[in-house]
Design goal:
By secondary structure, the protein is an alpha/beta fold. The chain has five domains: about 140 residues, Response regulator (Rossmann fold, 3-Layer(aba) Sandwich); about 100 residues, PAS domain (Beta-Lactamase, 2-Layer Sandwich); about 80 residues, Orthogonal Bundle (Helix Hairpins), CATH 1.10.287; about 160 residues, Histidine kinase-like ATPase, C-terminal domain (Heat Shock Protein 90, 2-Layer Sandwich); about 120 residues, Response regulator (Rossmann fold, 3-Layer(aba) Sandwich), CATH 3.40.50.2300. Helices cover about 40% and strands about 25% of the residues. It contains 19 helices and 24 strands. Strands 13, 14, 15, 16, 17, 18 and 19 form a seven-stranded mixed beta sheet that branches. A five-stranded parallel beta sheet has the order 2-1-3-6-7, with helices on both faces. Strands 9-8-12-11-10 form a five-stranded antiparallel beta sheet, sandwiched between helices. The longest helix has about 55 residues.
């Protein structure tokens, strides 16, 4: 196979030198070369622009260009073509300068022969090819290094940065020159001393000390001083002697990932907390329901005895004491149901300022060692709320504050109008609209972070045995949530506590109401009493009979339907909501099918919310919550019977 022809461009204005070179290449060893000659640089550059030249023989002294400028112009146009500079015997200094500028070799005209010329051109081509291969390899490596999503930095034993990639420059400095030659801790941490093991593991030091790769997470500062959370991977870079000469450190910016993970963990914590609160609320609601049934039995029996006992008899005071304890027990179940958000609501527009002023003034008379400050905004929005429940929230927070200040202190109460925009950054997404904000601040002992995560759990208390039920803040939480509000706690150990409560505002007008004492109302007619609790059923029947009614008893929904279908007329059905066989809702619907005009008074240890409300929405007449006293029962029965 014949060798490839090598095209030579000779740029030489001396005809004798040109003819000599032509003769050299005419000899047997130069057969593979073809030679083109031009006398001026401009002509040579035009020919080079056409391509196809493999090597250039360049005289630096030409009619239209002299010296190193000749080489510079040629090299600038064809960097990929090797150049051999032709020089006189006295111009070797300029020739070596040309080689430093990029020429592959030079030939002194007076010392040239055919073999030297051919060998020099061959070596020039091979050297240029090697340089080009090396350049392409470096370019390829540069593209890899600078295309990385990680910052790369090369650091020596003195923590001096020797090399960086584009990503590193982008995050830590405006240009490479601002970084190269400076210390890594100065650039990445904006400090004047190396990282110490006590505050930051230094991966560079670890690699130099152990010879093994290292991985750490650091908080760096970008070129504007902003925080960067980075993963650092450091590797040894060995010198020719096999010893560690530098450390290569890769920095992966995980700021967004870390913050997203933190946000995810926060959301998961909120979800777990919400599920826990819901589960505990369901359990607490069930306990309260059963306890209300027990109280109903006690309340009913006390009412039956009081029917036959006047105020002068010796047991009258004892019975009234029992009644008072029933009321206290009922308040306890109300707290539990409020936590479970199954408490009844007598919801109406109220002025929170008035309630705060009234309750705090009354509370202040019992706590002389507590100074109460009130900062109540004028023209405060009204809220739709259960007056008694909000009063309970306030009193529980007052009591909680004074327990945190055993030696006395300050209790600061503030109200103000806010919107959902003022609630940003909280652990929840508030519904858009106006809110009333109440803050209750004490100067007490404060609450640590661990306890803050549990203070709204029912039955959780930090007080010693016998001093707290653990229902106070749990009921506060339940009541606030039941009013579609939000509650926050901000506290540090030894620095006091602030509870912030946001309640939705309303544009409804506040109406004044006057309470009127209700008498026991007697009546007549047939009532079907339905309850799966035997003692509740028995006691309720006796109370209704005392009020003048004929009573039919059913121990569940199935038996109630049978009795209702077989007895006519039945003037009223008092129907329990939660029963094991056929529930109150299904029993009501079937009775409605038998008699569209059936009159039903729902009764439950739970609240009017939930299933009871659904039954009422389907046309049921009224609802009464256990435990109820005889006056409340007589009034509700009379009202339903009086309906047309």
């Amino acid at each position: 196979m014949s060798e490839k022809t090598i095209n030579v461009l000779l740029i030489e204005d001396n005809p004798g030198d040109a003819r000599l070179i032509q003769e050299f290449l005419s000899e047997p060893g130069g057969a593979m070369f073809t030679l083109e000659c031009v006398e001026q640089l401009s002509t040579g550059l035009n020919r080079l622009a056409e391509g196809g030249i493999d090597v250039i023989l360049l005289d630096l002294g030409l009619p239209d260009s002299q010296g190193l400028d000749t080489f510079a112009k040629t090299h600038e146009q064809v960097r990929h073509v090797p150049i051999v500079v032709l020089t006189g015997l006295d111009d070797e200094t300029m020739a070596t300068q040309a080689m430093r500028a990029g020429a592959q070799d030079y030939l002194a005209k007076g010392q040239m022969d055919s073999n030297l010329l051919i060998r020099t051109m061959r070596y020039a081509i091979e050297r240029k090819q090697s340089e080009e291969a090396l350049r392409k390899s470096r370019d390829y490596l540069d593209r890899i290094v600078n295309g990385m999503n990680e910052g790369l930095v090369v650091i020596n034993r003195n923590f001096i940065i020797k090399e960086v990639n584009d990503r590193f420059v982008k995050e830590y400095g405006s240009v490479r020159e601002d970084i190269i030659g400076r210390t890594c801790y100065e650039i990445t941490h904006k400090v004047s001393e190396p990282c110490s093991s006590s505050d930051h593991r230094c991966p560079v030091r670890e690699v130099f000390n152990t010879g093994k790769p290292a991985r750490v997470e650091h908080i760096h500062r970008d070129r504007s001083g902003g925080e960067l959370i980075v993963e650092l991977y450091a590797f040894p870079l060995l010198g020719e002697d096999g010893k560690i000469e530098h450390v290569i450190e890769l920095s992966h910016n995980i700021t967004e990932r870390t913050r997203a993970e933190e946000e995810k963990r926060g959301l998961e914590t909120q979800l777990i907390h919400a599920q826990k609160m819901q589960a505990i609320g369901t359990l607490a609601g069930g306990i309260a329901h059963d306890f209300n049934n027990l109280l109903s039995v006690i309340q009913g029996n006390v009412a039956l005895i009081l029917f036959d006992v006047d105020a002068n008899q010796p047991h009258y005071r004892n019975l009234k004491r029992i009644e008072k304890q029933i009321q206290r027990g009922s308040k306890l179940t109300h707290q539990i149901l409020a936590y479970a958000r199954k408490e009844k609501h007598d919801v109406k527009p109220i002025n929170l300022n008035e309630l705060v002023a009234e309750t705090s003034e009354a509370f202040g008379t019992t706590r002389k060692d507590t100074t109460i400050y009130r900062e109540l905004t004028e023209d405060l929005y009204a809220i739709e709320a259960d007056h008694g429940q909000i009063e309970q929230v306030l009193l529980n927070l007052y009591v909680n504050a004074t327990h945190a200040m055993p030696g006395g202190g300050d209790l600061i109460l503030k109200t103000m109008n806010v919107t959902h925009d003022d609630m940003k950054g909280k652990g929840y997404d508030p519904r858009p609209g106006n809110y009333v904000l109440l803050t209750v601040t004490d100067t007490g002992t404060g609450i640590d972070k661990e306890t803050q995560g549990r203070i709204f759990d029912p039955f959780f208390t930090t007080k010693e045995m016998g001093r707290g039920t653990g229902l106070g803040l749990a009921s506060v939480y339940g009541i606030v949530k039941g009013h579609a509000g939000y509650i926050d706690v901000d506290s540090e150990k030894g620095r006091g506590t602030t509870f912030s409560i946001y309640l939705p505002a309303t544009e409804k007008k506040i109406k004044k109401s006057v309470e009127i004492a209700e008498p026991v109302i007697r009546g007549s007619g047939t009532i079907l009493l339905v309850d799966d609790e035997e003692m509740v059923l028995e006691t309720g029947a006796e109370v209704l009979k005392k009020l003048g009614y004929r009573v039919l008893e059913a121990k569940g929904g199935r038996e109630a339907l049978k009795i209702y279908s077989e007895n006519n007329p039945i003037d009223l059905v008092i129907l329990d909501v939660i029963m094991p066989d056929i529930g109150g809702g299904e029993a009501y619907d079937k009775m409605k099918e038998m008699n569209p005009n059936v009159k039903v008074l729902l009764s439950s240890g739970y609240s009017i919310d939930g299933e009871a409300k659904e039954i009422l929405d389907r046309g049921c007449d009224a609802f009464i919550q256990k435990p109820f006293d005889i006056k409340e029962l007589s009034k509700s029965v009379k009202q339903v019977l009086g309906k047309e």
